[in-house]
């Protein structure tokens, strides 16, 4: 999608209208910079210049994202406060409210799904990809700590029984946590098995 155009016209208003047609948007959606004011020249003929303007789309990422989430939570009959911060190429979204357990879902599956859908909305019309990180009640950190404890517990069982153990299906982010937690174990190896969305982490003794 074109983000910025230069346009000309006999007047500034005409130049702006020409630019809006090229961008395919309304006046409220752009920032306008006047590059050249029109000049009729000598006798209205010699040395005349057309108006030239630069139109650039406003970044409406935050507004569009908040509208999407508000509509989603309204459909779920949930009262959710949305705190959003954008830093460079990442959007951090913190959700709060009285029923965050519903938003989190079993093992964070609902939260992950909402984060995924939000990422699609955020990046639908962007040229540069923006990462979306969504959290509520510090769930992400708590989940990571739980997975790290699980990884070490399972590794201990593998060393005791000398048998491979396979964990429950996890998303790529959670599988990376397991792999990272055990990468310094000298006698343990981890690898993923199966196909998405049922891909699992296996923990076994190194051969």
From TrEMBL:
This protein's UniProt keywords: Cell shape, Cell wall biogenesis/degradation, Chaperone, Cytoplasm, RNA-binding
Annotated region Jag_N domain: the residues are: 6-56
Q: Which Gene3D superfamilies match?
A: 3.30.300.20, probable RNA-binding protein from clostridium symbiosum atcc 14940, R3H-like domain
GO cellular component, as recorded: cytoplasm
List localization entries.
Cytoplasm
Q: Where is the R3H domain?
A: 141-207
Q: Does the keyword Membrane apply?
A: no
Coiled-coil segments, which residues?
A: none
UniProt KW Acetylation keyword: no
Q: Which GO molecular function entries does the Swiss-Prot or TrEMBL record give? A: RNA binding
Q: What is its main location?
A: cytoplasm
One of the GO BP terms on file: regulation of cell shape
What family does this chain come from, according to its entry?
Belongs to the KhpB RNA-binding protein family.
Which HAMAP family does the protein's record reference?
A: KhpB (MF_00867)
Q: What is known of its domains?
A: Has an N-terminal Jag-N domain and 2 RNA-binding domains (KH and R3H).
Quaternary assembly: Forms a complex with KhpA.
Listed NCBIfam families: Jag_EloR
Record's function text: A probable RNA chaperone. Forms a complex with KhpA which binds to cellular RNA and controls its expression. Plays a role in peptidoglycan (PG) homeostasis and cell length regulation.
Quote the protein name from its UniProt record. RNA-binding protein KhpB
Q: Which organism is it from?
A: Tindallia californiensis
Q: What is the lineage of its organism?
A: Bacteria, Bacillati, Bacillota, Clostridia, Peptostreptococcales
Q: Which gene encodes it?
A: khpB
């Amino acid at each position: 999608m074109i983000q910025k155009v230069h346009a000309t016209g006999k007047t500034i208003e005409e130049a702006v209208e020409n630019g809006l047609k090229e961008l395919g948007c309304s006046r409220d959606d752009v920032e306008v910079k006047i590059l050249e004011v029109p000049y009729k020249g000598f006798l209205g003929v010699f040395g005349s210049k057309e108006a030239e303007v630069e139109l650039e789309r406003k970044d409406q990422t935050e507004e569009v994202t908040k509208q999407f989430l508000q509509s989603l939570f309204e459909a779920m009959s949930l009262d959710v406060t949305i705190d959003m911060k954008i830093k460079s190429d990442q959007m951090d979204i913190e959700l709060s409210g009285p029923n965050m357990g519903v938003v989190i879902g079993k093992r964070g599956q609902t939260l992950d799904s909402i984060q995924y859908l939000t990422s699609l909305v955020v990046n639908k019309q962007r040229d540069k990809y923006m990462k979306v990180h969504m959290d509520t009640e510090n769930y992400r950190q708590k989940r990571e700590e739980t997975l790290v404890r699980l990884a070490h517990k399972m590794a201990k069982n593998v060393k005791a029984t000398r048998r491979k153990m396979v964990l429950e299906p996890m998303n790529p982010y959670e599988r990376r946590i397991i792999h990272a937690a055990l990468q310094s174990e000298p006698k343990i190896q981890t690898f993923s098995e199966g196909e998405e969305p049922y891909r699992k982490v296996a923990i076994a003794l190194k051969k």
